[in-house]
Amino acid sequence: MKIDWLFNFKIVNLLIDFVESDDPDWKGYLYTVLISVVSVLVTLLQAATFYRQVLEKSMVSAFYIYEIIVEIRRLVHHLAPHPHGPHVSHLQKVAAAVKHRTKDHDRSSGTL
Length: 112
Fold this sequence. Notes:
The protein is mostly helical. It has helices spanning 2-20, 25-79, 90-109. It has one domain (2-84).
């Protein structure tokens, strides 16, 4: 992060100016504590950002894994043998019945 470097740079400059001047001691302690606090805050912000990125990538991975599992199940179900023989749709059954009727009708009328 560039912001932490900027803040620490400014605080270190203030600390150097403090050492060269005759200011009260509490200013030196304040600058030292400020450097520590800024470093801790930057670390916490970086950890939160990293955690958010890990969480986001985990969610995306979970979504893709779920999609792969659903696709595999669909393919396995489609390729698995049907317990009552080959899968025949309702429209195929109707078409076969109509075809069978027309053959019977043609035979009864004497034309083939």
